[in-house]
């Protein structure tokens, strides 16, 4: 079974530039998550999709971050414009369950973003 | 605010020593509890989980965790660690009262000396 794929693995940009991350979840997984993991901290949920609908985006800085999951499969997360404090690893995860309490999440390798 | 606390940020042990990593959460009601592990250079992966039933759950590689509802705790244990257990360990909680949002602890970095 193929795992969660993410690209790029690394990205270095200057502040005020834009950046986009891509995620392909495990086939058949209805729920997709984007997390931000700042060095020394645990992952923080940014947005959760169920199929192509948003379940939770309460911690997504909507003035600069956006995400979409077209057709309920792949997803992209965009930052525009980036700030220094956005430097982090962005993790994508997916799970099979479609409602209620979360089941096991399967994580991708992450994208390490450095904002200079 | 609802939170997940991991008591130790860094732990150093010698091989064969026993391990216990603490995890406490502040949610009430029904919860799903997880321990995830990230080995050096690898993805976050599930170590074990508790949804219901026997509060003592066993995971991969000899790890186990005990859910104590009255203490809001889900501590991870292993009787004898190996060098290959060097990794970062994250406790995570998913609760109805938290809007089904998974909250992760800050993680514990474990280093096992050979």
Descriptive overview:
The complex is a heterodimer of chains A (116) and B (114). In chain A, 0% of the residues lie in helices and 47% in strands. With 116 residues, chain A is mainly beta. In chain A, the strands form two sheets. In chain A, strands 2, 4, 5, 6, 9, 10 and 11 form a seven-stranded mixed sheet that branches. In chain A, a hairpin with a 2-residue loop joins strand 5 (44-50) and strand 6 (53-56). In chain A, 36% of the residues are buried. The model of chain A has no long low-confidence stretch (mean pLDDT 93). Chain B has 114 residues and is mostly beta strands. Chain B has no helices and twelve strands. In chain B, the strands form three sheets. In chain B, strands 2, 5, 6, 10, 11 and 12 form a six-stranded mixed sheet that branches. In chain B, strands 3-9-8-7 form a four-stranded antiparallel sheet, with no helix packed on it. In chain B, strands 1-4 form a two-stranded antiparallel ribbon. Chain B starts with a strand and ends with a strand.
The secondary-structure class of chain B comes to: mainly beta
What percent of the residues of chain B sit in helical stretches (DSSP H or I)? Answer: under 10%
Biggest β-sheet of chain A: count, sense, barrel?
7 strands, mixed
Q: Give the overall form of chain B.
A: globular
Distance between termini of chain A?
37 Å
Which outline of chain A best applies? Answer: globular
Largest sheet of chain B: 6 strands, mixed
Element-level helix/strand string of chain B: EEEEEEEEEEEE
Number of helices of chain B: 0
Low-confidence segments of chain A, ≥5 residues, pLDDT <50?
Answer: none
User: What's the helical proportion of residues of chain A?
Assistant: under 10%
- Mean of all residue-level pLDDT scores of chain A: 93
Low-confidence stretches of chain B: none
Query: How much beta of chain B, percentage-wise?
Result: over 45%
């Amino acid at each position: 079974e193929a795992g969660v794929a993410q690209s790029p693995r690394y990205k270095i940009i200057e502040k005020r530039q834009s950046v986009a991350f891509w995620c392909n979840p495990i086939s058949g997984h209805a729920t997709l998550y984007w997390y931000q993991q700042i060095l020394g901290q645990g992952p923080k949920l940014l947005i959760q999709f169920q199929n192509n609908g948003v379940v939770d985006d309460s911690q997504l800085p909507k003035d600069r971050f956006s995400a979409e999951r077209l057709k309920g499969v792949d997803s992209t997360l965009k930052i525009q414009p980036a700030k220094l404090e956005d430097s982090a690893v962005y993790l994508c995860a997916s799970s099979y369950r479609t409602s209620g309490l979360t089941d096991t999440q399967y994580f991708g390798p992450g994208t390490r973003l450095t904002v200079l | 605010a609802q939170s997940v606390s991991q008591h130790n940020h860094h732990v150093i042990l010698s091989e064969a020593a026993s391990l216990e990593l603490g995890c406490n959460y502040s949610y009430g009601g029904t919860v799903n509890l997880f321990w995830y592990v990230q080995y050096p250079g690898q993805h976050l992966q599930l170590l074990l989980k508790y949804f219901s039933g026997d509060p003592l759950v066993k995971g991969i590689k000899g790890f186990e965790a005990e859910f104590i509802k009255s203490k809001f705790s889900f501590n991870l244990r292993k009787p004898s660690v190996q060098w290959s257990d060097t990794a970062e360990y994250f406790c995570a909680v998913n609760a109805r009262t938290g809007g089904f949002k998974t909250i992760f602890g800050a993680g514990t970095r474990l280093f096992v000396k050979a």
